[in-house]
Write a structure and sequence with these properties.
The structure is a single chain. The protein is globular, with a radius of gyration of 23 Å. It is built from 16 helices and twelve strands. A hairpin with a 2-residue loop joins strand 6 and strand 7. The chain is of the alpha+beta class. Helix 10 runs antiparallel to helix 13. Helices cover 38% and strands 13% of the residues. The protein binds adenosine monophosphate and magnesium ion (MG). Adenosine monophosphate (AMP) binds next to loops.
Length: 520
């Protein structure tokens, strides 16, 4: 395995002079050097050939001792210096102070085909930022991150990715439901990748400490490497930088809304400065369409991070980033303008996204009413979001009365569709049919285009849980099956039709399927 090591973060930014692995407040530094914990008996469960190729790694080397050693944290790759990043954050709306990589250790950066990739082990042991935690990760949360981040990539959603999933061979004590019943679980390590793992919280940390010098260094570094098109640092460039981050963040969230992904813990320390989906924890996929749904049990009371609130939270988080960057600009107006634009762009981009889900190309004035009416209909009785939009592509012009039949499979309890509710649906299908009549496309053309934005297969919460349960027994076949299935989420894959199905009833209230806890 010949890696093109190209470290920039730890070479260009100030490191913590203290090299001991003790928990502490770290000042004047973006990172602390730390070595991964030696895993007792590492074992490769799965690796992503697609990701490997991006890094210049031959998938043949997955079975090598070197691959196992490097990506389990057993051996440090020559001439590299692993480190944990310092960052802060707002958690559930409150300032939480210094957080940092508590269970992630950056190995190195690789340059391949002109692209820079940072590689990071999640679950490789404690760091100066581990606070009360052990720096470890359990198999269940690692399977979820591994499968979902690659699935999101194939869905076309901006995301961090994953190279490998390993067992550490060590047991990890976890109180999964925070109810005083801790149990030992298998420890695991994911090697995840992204051009950079810098978050909003990295900027917030320096801003909170009035450390403008390092705030500027970090911002200049970020622009130079990841927003080079913005040019040399200046007040104008910082404003353009904030604008670009706002746009990317909005774009990412609109993608989430499109595919029905609920992040679950959109704290500012979980917001990538590149607008990538990051930190797959208590996330979930909408099954029944519901703006109020959140998978995160920690958030069950306030539902701050519910599906319908994700765009607002994105804006709130951007406001925190604006506050952090303010010392570099010292004028509030440019930030206010960009934040206001987020709101208007949100409206127009949501409408555009919904049009694409309905196979509409023309912009008609009545579209926002059509969408609002559809949302009302989807809430009449529990309706599976993924199945509904996928089957809507089968709707034919001139046959509004066949609308319900076309999407019937999406209803969890068809008997709940009373006459009134059916009539409301029928009225909507009639409007939709009038609307598609002004489009130039034929039924089959519309279907083709809808099927590129409405996935047939997503990582339903229960699917991940089935894969986890098997993996716990040492059977990794379902991880592999789902990994391959989700590489082509928009393809029919008739041989996998069994995964184009509503959540089974047993999974409705099962832990791991509908209830997820924050940190694991
Ligand atoms: P998260 O909820 O995953 O975004 O984590 C919030 C913060 O807690 C981050 O600083 C994490 O690194 C830290 N953290 C979460 N779980 C652990 C753990 N098991 N050990 C150490 N730190 C952790
Ligand atoms: Mg996090």
């Amino acid at each position: 395995m010949q890696l093109q090591i190209n470290d920039t973060f730890n070479k260009e930014l100030p490191s913590d002079p203290n090299k001991t692995n003790t928990r502490r407040q770290v000042k004047n530094a973006t990172h602390s050097y730390v070595s991964p914990k030696q895993p007792t008996k590492p074992k490769l469960i799965h690796a992503s050939p697609e990701m490997a190729k991006e890094l210049g790694i031959d998938p043949e080397s997955f079975s090598s001792k070197e691959f196992l050693d490097v990506f389990s944290g057993s051996k440090i790759y020559p001439k590299t210096n692993p480190y944990a990043m310092a960052y802060a954050g707002h958690q559930f709306g409150n300032w939480a102070g210094q957080l940092g990589d508590g269970r992630a250790i950056n190995l190195f950066e690789v340059k391949h085909n002109g692209n820079l990739w940072a590689l990071q082990l999640k679950g490789a042991g404690e760091t100066p930022y581990s606070r009360q935690g052990d720096g470890l990760a359990v198999l269940r949360s690692s399977v979820r991150e591994y499968l979902c981040s690659e699935a999101m990539y194939h869905l076309g959603v901006p995301t961090t990715r994953a190279l490998s999933l390993m067992l550490s061979g060590d047991d990890v004590l976890r109180d999964m439901l925070y109810d005083g019943n801790p149990e030992y679980e298998k420890g695991a390590i994911v090697c995840r990748t992204a051009p950079t793992f810098i978050r909003f919280g990295n900027f917030e940390l320096f801003a909170a400490r009035q450390d403008t010098k390092n705030l500027k260094r970090l911002t200049d570094y970020t622009i130079q490497h990841f927003y080079p098109e913005l040019g040399a640092p200046s007040k104008e460039t910082y404003i353009e930088f904030f604008k670009a981050v706002s746009e990317r963040t909005l774009e990412m969230i609109i993608h989430w809304q499109r595919v029905g992904f609920v992040h679950g813990v959109m704290n500012t320390d979980n917001m990538s400065i590149l607008g990538l989906t990051i930190d797959y924890g208590p996330y979930g996929w909408l099954e029944g369409f519901d703006f109020g749904w959140t998978p995160n049990t920690t958030d069950a009371q306030n539902k701050r991070y519910r599906y319908g609130n994700q765009p607002n939270v994105g804006l709130w988080n951007l406001l925190q980033l604006a506050n952090a960057l303010f010392p570099l600009v010292e004028e509030p107006e440019p930030f206010e303008l960009i934040l206001n634009n987020y709101k208007t762009n949100f409206e127009t981009k949501t409408l555009q996204m919904m049009r694409s889900k309905l196979g509409l190309e023309i912009e008609a004035e009545t579209d926002s009413t059509l969408m609002a009416d559809l949302e009302d209909c989807l809430l009449l009785t529990e309706t599976d979001m993924t199945i509904f939009f996928r089957l809507l592509a089968n709707f034919e012009k001139g046959k509004p009365e066949r609308g319900i039949k076309a999407v019937e499979k999406a209803f969890y309890k068809k008997e709940e569709l009373t006459e009134d509710k059916s009539n409301q649906w029928l009225a909507w299908f009639s409007n939709y049919e009038r609307r598609i009549n002004i489009e130039a496309s034929t039924d089959s053309e519309r279907k083709l285009s809808m099927n590129t934005v409405n996935p047939k297969y997503v990582l339903r919460n229960y699917m991940a849980q089935l894969a986890i349960d098997k993996a716990d027994d040492g059977d990794y076949s379902l991880i592999d099956e789902l990994f391959n299935l989700l590489k082509n989420p928009y393809s029919e894959q008739p041989e996998h039709e069994n995964w184009f199905a509503k959540r089974p009833e047993w999974a409705r209230h099962k832990v791991g399927c509908s209830m997820l806890s924050c940190s694991s």
